[in-house]
Amino acid sequence: MANTKKLPRQERKAKKRVARRTLKDKWAALTRKERQEFVKAEKPLTVWLREKAAEKAKAAEAPAKT
């Protein structure tokens, strides 16, 4: 979640709510197969999503070089 220590209470609650909502939307967008991969990985969802994005970027970059 976002670092919200320096924000007033209401703003902090709003920021965290938005962060939770976007994370829930990302979870809902996953396919059944992706969810199973995530469960096997035993990592937080945000970490797993970042790793998947990095893998996709690396895979897209590799054919372009050859």
Name the structural class: mainly alpha
Strand-residue fraction?
under 5%
Beta strands, count:
0
Mean pLDDT: 89
Instruction: Give the biggest beta sheet.
Output: none
Low-confidence sequence ranges: none
What is the tally of helical segments?
3
Q: Helical proportion?
A: over 70%
In total, the number of domains comes to 1
Order of helices and strands: HHH
Question: TL;DR?
Answer:
With 66 residues, this protein is mainly alpha-helical. It has helices at 9-29, 32-41, 45-65.
What is the element layout, followed by pairings?
Blueprint: H1 9-29, H2 32-41, H3 45-65
Give a verbal description of the structure.
The protein is an all-alpha fold and 66 residues long. It is built from three helices and no strands. The protein has helices spanning 9-29, 32-41, 45-65. The chain starts with 8 loop residues before the first helix and ends with a helix.
